[in-house]
What does this fold into?
Amino acid sequence: MGPYLAVAPLLLLALGGCGLMMTEAYASFTKTREEGASSQLALPSAVTMLAAAVMAFGLWLKDPATLDGAAVLAPWLVIDRFSVFFTMVTCLGGALATLLAGGYLPEHNLDRGEFYPLMIFSTLGCVVLGAAGDLLTLFLGLETMSLGVYALTGFRRSPRSVEAALKYFLLGSFAAALLLYGGALLYGATGHTDLVGIGQALAKGGRLPYPALVFAFCLILVGLVFKIGAVPFHMWVPDAYEGAPTPVMAYMSVAVKSAAFAMALRVLVTTFGDAKFGSWATGWPPILALLAVLTMVIANLIAGRQESVKRMLAYSSVAHAGYVLVGVVSVMRVGAEAQASVLFYLLAYTVSTVGAVGALVWMGSRGKEATSYEDLAGLGRRHPAAGFAMSFFLLSLAGVPPSAGFFAKMYVFRAAVGAGFYWLAVIGLLSSVIGAYYYLRVMVYMYMREPAPGAPEAEPMRSGMVVSALLISGVVVLLLGLVPGASLEMAIAAAVK
Amino acid sequence: MPSSLFDLWPVLGVGAIGALIPTKQDWKLRAGLGLSAALLVLFALKTWDVPVVPEDGPKEWPNLLSALIAIPLLGAGFLLFLPRQSPELLKRFTLGVLALDLLLSLSLLSVPMTKGWHFQSIKEWVPSLGIRYHVAVDGISVWLVLLTTFITPIAVFASFGSIKTRIKELCFSYLLMQGAMLCSFVALDLFLFYVAFELMLVPMYVMIGIWGGAEKIKASLKFFLYTMFGSVLLLASMLYLVWEYTRITGAPSFDLLALSRVMLPQKVQTVCFLAFALAFFIKVPMFPVHTWLPDAHVQAPTGGSVILAAIMLKVGTYGYLRFGMGLFPWAAGTMSANLAGVAVLGGILYGALCAWKQDDVKKLVAYSSVAHLGYVMLGLFSATPSAISGSILQMVNHGISTGALFLLVGVIYDRRHTRQVDEFGGLAKVMPVYAVLWLIVTFASIGVPGTNGFVGEFLVIMGTYVSPRLGRFAGIDAVLAAFGVILGAVYMLSVTQKMMFGPLSNPKNKRLADVNTRESVALAPLIVLIFVIGFFPSLFTDRMKDAVAAFDVRYRDSFELAKAHGNNPAELVTIDDASFLKGAPPLGKAAVEAARQAAAEGSK
It folds into this structure.
């Protein structure tokens, strides 16, 4: 098989994306094309991504370290357990979001075929980003991922949507430019572009231009934190999420965020993991700790004041980035356990968020989309199944046991306690109480209020694909909450060495 | 089996009599009456007759507790697939599941509650984090389990009378709550306990929020966020505790028995204890974190109030006893004198005074809960064997009498849709049976001799007076607590006077119907138990005395150890109490290594 088995998920995504694009292009020439035909692509794209995830799981079982292809690709693409884990997470997130789109797009008359190839290529970027071991491949992955998402954000072509896409595009390119500039400086200072090489040069010390290095480090950190969407670089998140079609919002908040965290973890651990940059006294951990505190507190407080459920979920995804950052901060002290907590959190967060956003998608039909709290009033009575699903996933996001969200939160804060950051754990847990307030507020509207007379009501739609996405996420959320053992061990094994 | 069936003749006889006497009623009601009469006799028989212990102990079915927890949870899952259009089916199904749970829980009484754990069941859950599914009962928790299985069907049955909308959600909430509450009383793993502790919040939140009164949304959010605030601190200190344990033994464990083997430095004990205590005090609730309780109770529907007061508050007191005192004996011991002051002044006296000034009778009962739970907490702070027994008994008593009071308040609320004391007066003339029941429950709540309240309060006050933990304040605490009994009489009797007696001035009250059959069936078991506990308290205290004595010894010994240990780094202290450590996980790798080394050095 040569090097091909190691990159099988990537190849699958790339070939699948091309194939679907061709299919879409040729199908549109036929005269008999009926409305909604391109939504036929939804299921194949979801299957492509799921197949990539399954393929990644196969690689996991085979142990990527034993593949001869992995050595050929290094150091540009690092195929190890870490990247394979993230391939699974991002492909799962992408597949679930695509299933949501399969219901959402025809319902809201957005049925255009380019959506699905864009989604697949963007997922391809996520996977490359998770596996990137060199600044060049890292940038390549970042841009592949981002360009797809920029286009998807503006997919509705309404002024709101276009504004969101433009904002996201401008800010995102700016952040990417900062990252690139930081990378250039790093190359100038150390003579390496691969992450391990830079890390070794930094660890060796000697005659390095430290002012330039620190500057480069700051630029790279800003670029990373921007993609993660943590405070204070979160300004684009609510606008972009709100303007984007709802399935794209789900995609952005799970796959894109997971890939960004994968990139951040690898860069911080392998490149800046030396005694100087990785220490509490002189390195990045205190900076990230401060950002984590700011993110958890500010994002939760702002989320509580939102009137739109979509915006609330956007801020909640910012807040969750804060919880994950707590795990990242602990990495330098407790190592594999803390990395595992980040990985597990992202997996749990992926299924919970797709579920919550999916329930929101399910609740709205054409012209009667559910966006504000008022739209949801009385929905628990009018549509018990959707209300139940929404409550279930929101409770998981709020961290109520026995759900994936609870276990993930516990695991992250356990890492913080183990690293001696008690205050970080306490602040995080207390801010999750604020978080519980706004998640419960959705339940208040769904179950305890009735719509005002004459007010617009959300009308649930019918879609097998949305329901199956919800079922898959629901089962995974419950499994991760009840029997987290196996996936925990996977996460521990996946930690970057 | 035939011989044991024959042994049950009084049960069957009483059941038949109960079913045959009300000849004018339909068969459903008669079957219900017969069944409840039979169950009561069965309960009395089982408690009465403690069989002789065979040599190797009686056979215990290890999955009993798991079945008790699983039946309502599986029932809740199954309920989701029943049609919402047929509320009768949903109601019957729910009551059936709860009745099965009650019957099964009675078999807990089939073994004598000796020292140590019974019906223990252990399964690995998340081995890499040291989390196990570990459940067991002892003489302390068995009463709370029985209280839960006993009260919930009554609350559910009563609430079907007043709640007519969204039965499916109602039944689902009740079943989920039942499973979570039972799990919290039998969990010996901190993680499992925490899961149950949090899980029971959601159904109660839904219950207050959907079927509550005018201010329901505010009350339900307040309830949820207040409790969650405490419980996240509990989680944080739990993680810290386990981390300390891991550091000394080399392997993590969330097991209560394992964690009790670690002697933490006094500073650490204090920090952890404060977080644990805050979480439990919010749940109890104790002054000054009690302010969610009146709101939640006033807004909750009757069934929700009954469950909240009778069972859910006990999770706080039980958690304090089992985990707060069990894990941090030094911190609990040194702070108990001050905390007892808070319990007496803020709980018993302030709660009683607040209750006295209420115009809303449900709010009055809610504040009386604050006062009653003040006694429970006072008994736990005193920590003498009689005070602890009194506290446990008082937990059960409060569940019964306050549950009954809430049911009684619900009766007049269903008829008049108001709970203002001024609206009533002279009810004894139109509702004579109701007035009698109210008086009985009032007496139980005050603690008149012959009712259950007397025994519990007496034991607590007696234990407080001699408690060495409270130092020179023991006498004052006991006297003030006794004074609280008088205050209890003042507020309960004054509201009885205003509502039941005097002229029937309000014309709206002239045509009120007396308690109907559903309400009587719900109340009857509670009234019977008031007298059973009042006259035969030893039925209950005998079964808890071994567990309480063992707990007391362990608590005192580990307090002395911690005192000697001071602020030195945490170390492993092996307790020689084999019955307590039964089922504890083996010590971690490092500890095993250390033991091996010590043995090698000893042999040299």
Remarks:
- The two ends of chain B are 60 Å apart (CA to CA).
- The first helix of chain B runs from residue 2 to 7.
- The CA atoms of residues 372 and 445 of chain B lie 8 Å apart.
